[in-house]
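Supplementary Methods, section 5.1.

A reviewer requested that the exact input to the structure prediction be made available. We therefore reproduce it here, unchanged from the version used in the analyses.
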Amino acid sequence: MRTFTSDQIPELDFSKAIKKPIPVSCAQVMEPFQVETMEGLMQGKSGDWLMVGINGEMYPIDDEIFRKTYELLG
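The structure derived from this sequence is encoded token-by-token as follows.
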């Protein structure tokens, strides 16, 4: 079994892909919070976003990452 570590991108034949534009629900939470996710209990910081995915799964996203990867709709 191969192990990939976060400090080095493996030498693979990567393709480019764009995430499908699937609307999700989100709310910015202005206090520290916890959320039960599919991976277990996760912590969110004040200012992080609480996301609800297409299957009802919830997860936190750091505000900086949210702003780089999401665009709020109306």
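The mean pLDDT is 94. These observations are discussed further in the main text.
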